[in-house]
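agent> call fold_tool(seq_1)
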Amino acid sequence: FDRAQATLSSLAIYNKQAAQAASTAAARDFRTARRWIVGIVALALVVGIAIALAVAAAIGTPVRRMVDFANALAAGDTSREVAVDGRDEIAELGRALNGVVAAEREMAAAAERLAAGDTAHMVEPRGDHDTLGQTFAALGCTLARVVGEVGGLVEAARAGDLTVRGEADSFEGAYRDLVLGVNATLDAMAAPIAEAEQVLSR
């Protein structure tokens, strides 16, 4: 019995030591795993921040450049263009802004031609929604009609026919007033001539 009791005591001591060893190993493994997890999470955070900063710089810089460009364009500066490189959305935006600049330059050139009296080169609207282009085209047509109407009156007067009058009602605003003014001028010129003819015919 004493021998069995001693054996059981030895087994109990062994089991206790084994349990302590296993507990120590488990605690050590846990600390090691925790250090690895913390290290991996920290590395992932550093890599994520680096990637975020790189992406922000890659996107933010061209976007800021295009915002500056758009502000200059809104202020009427059509001398600049966006440097476009690539096929991503940023590059597509740059190409679209350059298209807006090209259209603005075309409208400016058309305005300069109209201001110089050139009504032969009409503006072609770029589509049904091109309000500015359609307005410029209508302006060019109206100016051409006014020039033609007044020019016809001048030619008739040069030929000695002071009975021709312009169709003022086919125009609006200042253009109508201009034709009416020319008609009134012709009336003022024709009246004394008609009176002189009546005197001479007596």
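agent> call fold_tool(seq_2)
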Amino acid sequence: AILDEVMAAIGEQAPKSAPARAAVLGIVRQTLADARKSAEADLMATGHGTGVPVGDGGLLINTSALKGMSVDPVSRTAWVQAGVTWQELNARAARHGLIGLQGSNSGVGVVGYSLGGGFGWLGRHFGFASQAIVAAEVVNADVDLITVSETHHAGLFWGLKGSAGNLGIVTSLQVRLVELDVVYGGSLLYPMADTEHVLTQY
């Protein structure tokens, strides 16, 4: 199952021959074995979180190549892998009049941002991005790939929403999308003399 996930992430460049696939499987198994023995494992995904220091003997896991995604306009949800950015997701969701709850920077990854809470331009109306998480695929401490939701591994699912992903390696999320066609944006500037009144009313 893990090998199939890796091949899907590689996409068109995935090896087709049995020997090549066996070689990839060997690398995957070795990586998982190293992860079990490593005193420290850190993630490097996309956006602002790309610079991750790793101590001696640590293992750096880069998820930026995981670019799979699908949008379901009927259920208004999307499945996104850990390397997908908000720009990539919302460009596809917009074809259906939908949008995800991104922050102020569309170059940030959907998964990391959502796991950290995520309060963006649409937050006052639609809430935190973490509240839009429907399910997650997670590699747990036993190096098993599991799906968590409100009905499966509910405790882990609850913990992931706002934990910044420190309870496992999240390889993909299912998130709710919202309908949106027109957005009015800009800045409101007030004279310094009105500061007290503006802050009180705000």
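agent> summarizing second result for user.
The longest helix spans residues 18-37. Strands lie at 41-44, 59-62, 69-72, 77-81, 98-99, 133-139, 145-149, 169-176, 178-179.
agent> awaiting next instruction.
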